[in-house]
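REQUEST
  id: r-88c1
  op: predict_structure
  target: Vesicle tethering protein Uso1/P115-like head domain-containing protein
  payload:
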Amino acid sequence: MLRMLEAQAPAKQNATDAINTLSGRLNNATLLEDRRGAILGLRSFAKEYPASVASGALRGLIESLKKDAEDVDTIKIVLETLLMLFNPNEKSPEASEDIPLWLADLFTQRQDNITILLDFVETNDFYSRLYSIQLISAISTARPERTQECILSAPLGTTRLVAVLDDLRDAVRDAGIILLTDLTRDATELQKLVAFENAFDRIFHIIKAEGGLTQGGITIQDCLSLLANLLRNNPSNQSLFRENGTVRKLHDLLPGSTQNRTAAKDDDNFLNPQKNKNLWGLLAILRMFLVKGSVGTKANQDAFQRYGILQQVLNLAFDKSTEVAIKAEALYTCADTIRGNAKLQEGFAQLQVAVVTRNEPTVNGETARTDGPQTVYVIDGLLDLVLGVASNQMFDARAAACECIKAYFYNHTQIRVHFLRRAIEGHTTGEDETANVLSTLINGPLADETPDAYRRWFASVLVMHLIYDDREAKDLLMAVAEGDAESGEEVVTCIQAIAGNLTAGIRNGEDERVLVGYLMLLCSWLYEDADAVNDLLGEGSTVQSLAQAASRPSMDQPLIPGLCAVLLGVLYEFSTKDSPISRRTLRPILVSRLGREKYFDAIVHLRQHPHVRDFEVLPQNSSSAPIGALPNVFFDPLFVDFLKDNFSRLTRAVDRDPGLEVIPQSLQSVNRDLLDDLRTQLDSRTQALQRAEAELLTKEKQLNQEQADHRRYQETAAAVQNKIKSVNEALQRDHENEIQKIHAANRAATEYMQDQHERSLGSVRAQLEATKAFMQEGSQANSATIAKLSENNASIKAAYDELDGAYKSLVEEASRLESEIEGLEKANGELKTTVADLRKEALAREESITSLNSKISNLESDLRKETERIVELEAAKEEQKKANELVAKKEKELRMTEEARSAAQTELDDMLMVLADLEEKRARDKRRLKELGEETSDVEEDGEEVEEGEEADEAVEEEEEA
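RESPONSE
  id: r-88c1
  status: 200
  body:
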C-alpha cells in the first residue's frame, strides 16, 4: 500500500524548480494574496540562491513595489527580499560580486525605480522607510555615480533624504546618515544641495542628542563623516557654514566649552572608547577649513579665532589626560589655524596654556613630585614639548608641536627675527629657563640629560626653517660665537660649533637621525651663502672629516655618505678664491680623497633612497616603526624639496672650473674687480647704516626708559585711585551696618513697649474690677470713683498735650538731621568730583614727564587733604548716628504715650457703660420702692440726676477734645 502511495506522489522539486514556479506565480498572479505568498517563498530562497531568484523574479519584485505600494506588509517582504539579494550568504554556491552590480544596473536603468524607493522614504511606516533607505545604500555602494544621478534627477530627491535626519527612530535616522555619507562622497553638486537643506543644523542636533563627542557612540562618528563629506574641498559649503554662524557649534562641541563642562564632570569616571575617535574626527573637520592655499582659508582662520576655537584646541593639546594621537592632531590644527595669517601669528605668542611641571629630584634618590598645572606662554610650552626629553610614544605630539612653531613664524620676517633674537639672547646669557634651540644645537651631546635622538633633530629643523631664504636671520646667527679672544680663548662660531658636533657624532657613531639633522641644517644654510661657506671652511679639519665620511658607505647609516657629499658639493660650489680654503685648493681634496665617481654615486644613492624618493607616500609619524622603536622619520619636507630641486646642480658642482665663481641665483662668471669695488661701497654704506642703527638703538632705549617711567606713574596713580575707592566703600559698609543696628534696636524697643502695655492693661483691668465692686456697694462710692476717673482723664490729656509738643519738636529735629545727611551726601559727591579731577590731573601729567616727581608730590599732598576730609566725614557720620538714636528714643516715648491714651479712653468708655447700668438699676429700685409704698425725694433724685448728667456730659466733651 505504501509503495502504491509513493508511486502516486508527485516528484520532489529542487530549489531551481521551486524558484521558477514562485517567479511565474509572482509575475502572473492578479490577486494580492497570491503575490504575497509567492514573495514569501522567494524570500526563503534569496539568501542561498541569489542568482536564481534575481534572474527569475527581480522584475516582478520591482513591479510589486509599484502595484502593491499601498499594502505595507507586502512592501516589507519585497524590500527584505531585495536586501537579501544584495547581501547573500557568503557560503552560497551562487554568491558572486557581480550580482550586486547587476542588481544595481537594473535599478538605475530607469529613473522611476529610484523614485519609487524615494516615495517609500517619505512614508511613516518604520520598515518601509528603513528598508528603502538600506536598499538605496546598497545600490549606491555598487553603482555610486548612477545612483547620484538618479537622486539628482528625482523630484525633491535630496530634500526627502535629508528629512530622514529628523526621524525620531534611531535605526531610520542612522541608516539615513550612512546613505547621505555614501551619496555625498566625491559629489560636489549633491554636497551643495544637501547643505542647503539645513543639513548642518540637523547634524549638530543629532550629535547633541547623542551626548556630544565625549559620551556619544558610533552615531557621532557617522555624523562627523557626513559633515566631513559636505565640507571637504567645497568652498561653497564652507562659506555657507561660516556665514550661518555654525562655527559656534563647532566651538560648543570641543571639550572646555560652557555646554560641555557639566557633561565633562559627569564623564570623568566614564571611559568611552569612541571618545578619541570622535575628537579626532572633529579635529580633522577643523583642518578641512584650513587647507593651505584655499580661497576661504583666511576667513576660516579668522572665524576660528573669533569664536575661541584656537584656544580650545590648544587647551585640548596640553591637557594631560589627552592621548598622544589627539594631542598631535590638535597641534596640527593649531598650526593650520595660524599659518600664513599675520594677525593670528602675532597674537599667538600671547596665548597661555596649562602644563604640568615637576620639581627637581630631592636627595637620597627620592623621586620628583608633581607641582600641578602651571600656566605658561604657548611658545614656551611648545618648545618644552619639542626639545624636552620624551619617550618614543610622544614623537607624534613633538612633531606636531614643531609644526606649530614653524607655522608661528611662517612667512613672517619680524617674528622670525624676534624668535631668533630671543634664542640668541637666552643662549649667550644663560638666563633663559625655557628650552632653547640654539643651546641644544651648539652644546651638542652635553645638552642631553638622557639619550634622545630627536631632540637635536627637532632643534636643527626649527633653525633651518628660521634661516631658510632669510638673509637677516642668517646674519644674526652667524654673529653668535663661543669663547673670548681677549682672554686668549679660541673663538668658535655657531657654524663651526655645529660642524664640530657633526664630525664628532660621525666619529662616535651617534644616531643617524641626529647627524641627518645637522647635515640638513648646514646644507640649507650654506647654499648660496659664501660668507657661511667661508665660516665653515675656517675649520679645515671639517672638510677632511666630511670627505672621509662620504667615501665610506655604511650599512648602519646609509644616508650619511650622500648627505656629506651634498654638503661638500655646496662648499665647493659657493667657495671663492678668498675662502680660508680656496676653490683651487678645495677641488683637489674632493677629487683625491673622494673622487668624482664616488661623489656622484653618493648623491645618486641618496636621491634613490626610499626615505627621499618615497618621502611623500611614507608615513612621517610613529606608525612607521614597530612599537617601542624609534620612528623612521629622518627628513623634513622643506629639505626634501630643496634636495630634489637642486639635485642636478649639486651633481655637476664638482665638474665646475675652480677659476669660475658663482653668485646666488646665477651660474655665470663674475668680474672680481667690479665685485671688489661694489664690496668697498657696500662696506662704507654698511658702516653708515650701523652708525644710524646705533643712534636708533640709543633713541629706542631712551624711549623705552621714558615709557617705563610713564607706566610706573600710571601704576602709582591707579594705586591712589584704588585706595580712595576702597576708603569710600568702607565708609558705605560702615553706614549700612549702623543702620542695621538702629533698626534692630527699634525692634527691641517695640517689643519692650508691647510687654509694658500688656502689663499696664492687666493692672487697669484689676482696678476696673475693684471699681465695679465699689460701685455695687453704693452710689456714693460710684460717684467718687467717677470723679477720680475724670481727674485721671484730665491728667492724661495734659500729658498727651505735653508729649504732642515733644513729638513736633522731634519731627523738626529729624528734618534738621535729614538736611545734615543731604549735606554729607553732597560732600561725598564733591569727593567723587575730586577723584575725577585727580584722574584728569593724571592724564595731564603724561604730557610732562620731566616734571613727574614734583607732580607726584602734589598728588600725595592732595591725597593727604582728601584723607583729612574722609576723617571729617567719619566724624559727621558719628553725629548722624547719635541723632538717629535720639529720634528712635523720642519715637518710642511717643508710642508709649499714645498707647496709654488709648487704654485710658477704653477704660472711660467702660466706666460710662457701668454708670448707665447703675442709673437703670437705681430707677428700677425707686419704682419698686414706690410700689411698696415708700416715699422718694424726686427733687434730690432729679438734682442728683442732673448733677450726674452734667458730669457725664463734661466727661464726653473732654474725651472729644482729647
